[in-house]
Write a structure and sequence with these properties.
The complex is a heterodimer of chains A (181) and B (362). Chain A is of the alpha/beta class. Chain A is built from 6 helices and 6 strands; from the N terminus they run E-H-E-E-E-H-E-E-H-H-H-H. Chain A starts with 5 loop residues before the first strand and ends with a helix. Chain B folds into 2 domains: 196 residues, Rossmann fold (3-Layer(aba) Sandwich), CATH 3.40.50.970; 116 residues, Rossmann fold (3-Layer(aba) Sandwich), CATH 3.40.50.920. Chain B has 362 residues and is an alpha/beta fold. Classes of the chains: A alpha/beta (181), B alpha/beta (362). The interface between A and B is medium-sized, with 21 and 24 residues.
Chain lengths: 181, 362
């Protein structure tokens, strides 16, 4: 996808680390020298509702922060899959959390859907909360939008200060996702 | 904190907070409201770290009067809010403008009127540029369209406020405030060689004549009239000195879009698609909403006698009045089109693209 703007949708329940996964990508872009613009949904619906982040990545200047359709998606729960699949462009890669999503829930047959048993894998690693980073690993391997080293750089920036202790489990979650396929 | 001049990642609202600290803001008073609450959230932590004054006031009315007090004491001070909260502050802003107190006021605009909604909007243009409070006054209004500009303009706002001795607004919106982008957190670089000393400040009058800061001018009978004339002489000077804008592809353009803030970025996406298809579309982006950068717009119109203008706003049409006023002697209204959406909603790159095609076909 070089030269073109990558428009990524990350969606799931509030609490699944949707915004965090977006921030890791955005931090990684700084290290990779790419332009990035991230917009999280905000509103009166965060707790228990769906959380959504849209991240635009490009070698060029990023103009509109309003993104209507995306060309890459990472979806972590069933309601988000149903709600947002219509905003994904034809033939786009879509990484779904198959622990919580039945792929038959969308009528779209023109998407390149890859299921990852992310929640169960995260439990095996030892922390259910790293399912988002496992999926990020799969996404980076499948699409090559960023170098894996810049993601680990992004993880270092995201898990700094008081959160530093969480870096290693997230780094190994990323590696296990990256090495999955 | 991050090292100087290295890119950091923040929301627009957080960048505004850090900019205030870098610019030497000593006091911040505010009351929470979506979509600006990241600024007080960020400053509640950072101002304590820096041993500065952070105070969550009991209301917006209280916060703006605390700003008045701190400004009168001669320190750099800021408040922030969003549209309904800004309405509450207007009485205080009128007083501050009358007393010529320097301060920085952030408005992260949301949908209105009324409590409206919490989505991004540009419908407070009239309120900010026409003086939402009573009386003859103006405030400088800066309109960022990125996180970088949210940071840079907030730093500059403190210098402008001290230099001209008046309130300066940052007019952001729910999207620019919530947007996360990398930006360069540069060191504070003064805009002016020298700022006037605050000899008027209420710092304790031992050994000198007392200073008086007031907004009531009952005597002499023409006292207030003289104060108004003085203010307007200053506003004329600012209009001559501070018209900020960016233009893009305007020379020889068939259509020039006029948009600021978030709308300018949506428009730029549409313009790129158009120019890729061979037509020539430019953009004029005001960076100061007051003073409105009319000198450059007039120049564009004069250099390009057939050009059509298309004003894009996230409102039912407010800035377009300044476009009409700027161009009234040289461009008929029939060559100025408008496309805007109110109620906290926004144009999209596709809908702007279609509107450009309509204007080109007319």
């Amino acid at each position: 996808m070089a030269g073109k703007e990558t428009k990524i949708l990350i969606a799931g329940f509030g609490g699944q680390g949707i915004i965090l996964a977006g921030n890791v990508l955005a931090y990684a872009c700084i290290d990779a020298g790419k332009n990035v613009c991230a917009m999280a949904s905000y509103g009166a619906e965060v707790r228990g509702g769906t959380a959504k982040a849209i991240i635009s990545i490009s070698d060029e200047q990023i103009d509109s922060p309003i993104i209507e359709t995306v060309n890459l998606a990472m979806i972590m729960n069933a309601p988000s899959f149903v709600r947002y699949s219509s905003s994904i462009e034809k033939d786009s890669p879509v990484i779904v959390n198959s622990s919580m999503i039945d792929q038959g829930q969308t009528e779209r047959s023109d998407l390149d859907i890859l299921g990852v048993d992310a929640t169960n894998l995260a439990i095996k690693i030892g922390n259910i909360k790293v399912a988002n980073i496992i999926m990020l690993g799969v996404m980076i391997k499948k699409t090559g939008i960023l170098d894996p080293d810049s993601i680990t750089g992004g993880l270092k920036r995201a898990f700094s200060g008081s959160k530093k202790g969480l870096y290693y489990i997230n780094e190994s979650a990323f590696r296990s996702g990256y090495d999955l396929y | 904190m991050a090292t100087e001049n290295k890119k950091v990642l923040m929301k627009g609202n957080e960048a505004v907070g850090e900019a205030a600290i870098r610019a030497g803001c000593q006091c911040y008073f505010a009351y929470p409201i979506t979509p600006q609450t990241e600024t007080p959230e960020y400053l509640s932590r950072r101002m304590e770290e820096e041993n500065l004054v952070f105070l969550q006031a009991e209301s917006e009315v209280a916060a703006i009067n605390m700003v008045f007090g701190a400004a009168a004491a001669g320190v750099r001070v800021m408040t922030s809010s969003s549209s309904p909260g800004m309405s509450l502050k207007q009485e205080g802003i009128s007083y501050i403008a009358c007393a010529e107190m320097p301060c920085v006021i952030i408005n992260v605009v949301r949908g209105g009127p009324g409590l409206g909604n919490i989505e991004a909007s540009q419908a407070d243009y009239f309120q900010s540029t026409r003086g939402g409070g009573h009386g003859d006054y103006r405030c400088i209004v800066l309109a960022p369209n990125s996180v970088q500009e949210s940071y840079d303009m907030t730093v500059q706002a403190f210098d402008l406020a001290d230099y001209y001795r008046m309130p300066v607004f940052i007019q952001s919106d729910g999207i620019i405030g919530q947007l996360v982008e990398p930006f360069v957190m540069g060191p504070y670089t003064p805009m002016f060689d020298e700022l006037p000393p605050k000899e008027w400040a209420l710092t304790g009058c031992a050994g000198r004549e007392p200073n008086v800061i007031r907004t009531l001018f009952l005597n002499p009978p023409d006292g207030l009239e003289k104060q108004n004339v003085r203010l307007y002489e200053k506003y004329d000077r600012i209009e001559a000195e501070q018209q900020w804008y960016e233009d893009y592809n305007c020379d020889g353009a068939e259509v020039v879009i006029i948009a600021y803030g978030c709308a300018s970025r949506i428009a730029r996406s549409a313009i790129k698609t158009h120019n890729g298809n061979g037509s020539k579309v430019g953009m004029f982006r005001p960076k100061t909403l007051w003073p409105w950068p009319k000198k450059r717009l007039i120049e564009i119109a004069e250099n390009n006698p057939k050009v059509k203008f298309l004003v894009i706003e996230m409102s039912m049409g407010q800035m377009i009045e300044d476009v009409y006023i700027s161009l009234m002697d040289i461009v008929p209204k029939s060559r100025i089109a408008f496309y805007g959406i109110g109620g906290g909603w926004h144009p999209t790159p596709d809908s702007v693209y279609e509107k450009i095609q309509e204007v080109l076909a007319e």
